């Protein structure tokens, strides 16, 4: 999903929604056991860039592996709840100065130890967007356009 590729409406919507929150969860497996870890994210050049704590070691399991990264607004109290997921290969990277500035301040400690950042970039292969509407209001035509005429949830291959 590079900047020169044509994106589906769901891919565009997922990137827009991801920009509304700062944290999500990355999931993969370590020694054949699944795990989920929190991460700070930004979107840069159509890819998800994560900042994690090096001391936990999760980056070693993610590097070169297929991961899923998800974020949502579940605790927002909003009537329209959304969830996005980017699935693709992760790799350890050195962010640019601009990307570092976009991340903002780092935590001081994680589980009582000093925070040491490690950065991972996900090259998405699949992007999903799910929305739950508790408002009881009919969809607008703009909302229908990104969900499809039927309003069905959709799964898009972004490669």
Written description of the protein model:
This protein has four helices and nine strands, in the order H-E-E-E-H-E-E-H-E-E-E-H-E. The chain has about 160 residues and is an alpha+beta fold. The strands form two sheets. The chain has a six-stranded antiparallel β-barrel.
Gist of the model:
This protein is 18% helix and 46% strand. The protein is α+β, with helices and mostly antiparallel strands and 159 residues long.
Shape: globular
Radius of gyration: 16 Å
The multimeric state of the shown protein is: single chain
Side by side, the strands of the main sheet go 1-2-3-8-5-4
Largest sheet: 6 strands, antiparallel, barrel
Number of strands: 9
H and E order: HEEEHEEHEEEHE
Question: Which structural category do the helix and sheet elements fall into?
Answer: alpha+beta
Span from first to last CA?
Answer: 6 Å
Query: What share of residues are in beta strands?
Result: over 45%
Ranges where pLDDT stays below 50 over 5 or more residues in a row are 145-159
The chain-level mean pLDDT equals 85
Helix content: 10-25%
Number of helices: 4
């Amino acid at each position: 999903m590079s900047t020169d590729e044509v994106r589906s409406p769901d891919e565009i919507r997922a990137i827009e929604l991801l920009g509304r929150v700062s944290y999500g969860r990355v999931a993969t497996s370590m020694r054949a056991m699944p795990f989920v870890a929190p991460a700070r994210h930004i979107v840069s050049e159509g890819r998800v860039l994560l900042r994690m704590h090096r001391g936990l070691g999760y980056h070693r399991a993610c590097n070169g592996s297929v991961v899923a990264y998800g974020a949502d607004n579940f605790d927002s109290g909003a009537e329209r709840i959304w969830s996005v997921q980017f699935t693709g290969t992760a790799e350890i990277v050195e962010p640019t100065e601009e990307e570092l500035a976009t991340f903002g301040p780092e935590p001081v400690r994680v589980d009582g130890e000093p925070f040491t950042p490690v950065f991972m970039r996900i090259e998405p292969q699949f992007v999903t967007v799910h929305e739950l509407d508790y408002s009881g209001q009919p969809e607008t035509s703009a909302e229908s356009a990104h969900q499809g005429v039927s309003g069905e949830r959709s799964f898009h291959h972004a490669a």
